[in-house]
Automatic annotation (TrEMBL):
PROSITE patterns according to UniProt: ADH_SHORT
Domain of life of the source: Bacteria
NCBIfam families: dhbA_paeA
Name under which the protein is recorded: 2,3-dihydro-2,3-dihydroxybenzoate dehydrogenase
Keyword Zinc: no
EC number assigned by the record: 1.3.1.28
TM segment ranges: none
Keyword Transport attached: no
Gene Ontology BP annotations: siderophore biosynthetic process
Keywords associated with the record: Oxidoreductase
InterPro entries reported for this sequence: DHB_DH, KR_dom, NAD(P)-bd_dom_sf, Sc_DH/Rdtase_CS, SDR_fam
Gene3D superfamilies: NAD(P)-binding Rossmann-like Domain
UniProt domain Ketoreductase: residue ranges: 7-186
The organism's taxonomic lineage, starting at the top: Bacteria, Pseudomonadati, Pseudomonadota, Gammaproteobacteria, Pseudomonadales
């Protein structure tokens, strides 16, 4: 299946996790992938693994508005952007009363402000052509409260609503905007939260009543490739009448 031949897609947070899996998926489907991340060594590792001239690397800080605006304009001149995926994000875990102001600001600076800066710059390019698709990676934690994740939950809720508002405003100019909300997914972020021990799968799947987590009805943790498949669908012409939607991909953990 080659749904992205002749198309260019910018992915933030492309060096690892869901972003890296999506880069591989879109490349296999014929896209030119513009991989953006603040981790230059991670980008180099991605390029080494994918080994394709159709992967373009850009090390950048999405919280730097001027840098991002200038970079997106330069990218779009050479590779007119058909798609954007906001996959960059961070997590901070702490009880609410102990969550530092610095951690709170970092969550919003990267997860929310970064998504805003990149999305606005790309949307301006797409509007000139009256076409495009934007997908933001939020989380099922955007709608389901999680213990010790108040800042993360709030930031992802902001990402989800920002993206849906973008879709409402940009739809008449041909730009679709959707959200993908993963649950527990086997990424560095999950291991940061839950550890690397052999009981990880069991704990995630069975849940933890002490943390008010019910578990995963499908009985497994998602792989990054699972989430990448949903994002690729929303980017593709197969979804050309879908916008403002939130595709929850959590194995049933939040009951839909």
């Amino acid at each position: 299946m080659k749904r992205f031949i002749g198309k260019s897609v910018l992915i933030t947070g492309a060096a690892r996790g869901i972003g890296a899996a999506l880069a591989e998926r879109l490349l296999a489907e014929g896209a030119t992938v513009i991989a953006l991340d603040c981790d230059s060594s991670g980008l180099e590792a991605l390029a080494e693994r994918l080994r394709s001239d159709n992967v373009k690397l850009h090390a950048a800080d999405i919280t730097d508005r001027e840098q991002i605006t200038s970079l997106v304009e330069r990218i779009d001149e050479h590779y007119p952007l058909d798609g954007l995926v906001n996959a960059a994000g961070v997590m901070e875990s702490a009880p609410f009363e102990q969550l530092s102001a610095q951690a709170w600001l970092r969550l919003f600076e990267i997860n929310v402000h970064g998504t805003f800066h990149v999305s606005q710059a790309v949307a301006r390019c797409m509007l000139a052509r009256r076409r495009g698709a934007i997908v933001s990676v939020a989380s099922n934690a955007a709608t389901t409260p999680r213990v010790n994740l108040s800042g993360y939950c709030a930031s992802k809720a902001a990402v989800a609503m920002l993206t849906r508002c973008m879709g409402l405003e940009l739809g008449q100019q041909g730009v679709r905007c959707n959200v993908v909300s993963p649950g527990s997914t086997r990424t560095p972020m999950l291991h940061q939260l839950a550890g690397d021990d052999e009981s990880l799968d069991r704990r995630m799947v069975q849940g933890d009543l002490g943390l008010h987590r019910i578990g995963i009805p499908l009985g497994k943790i998602a792989e990054p490739q699972d989430i990448a498949a949903g994002i690729a669908f929303l980017l593709s012409d197969d979804a050309n009448h879908i916008t403002l939607q939130n595709l929850v991909m959590d194995g049933g953990a939040t009951f839909g």
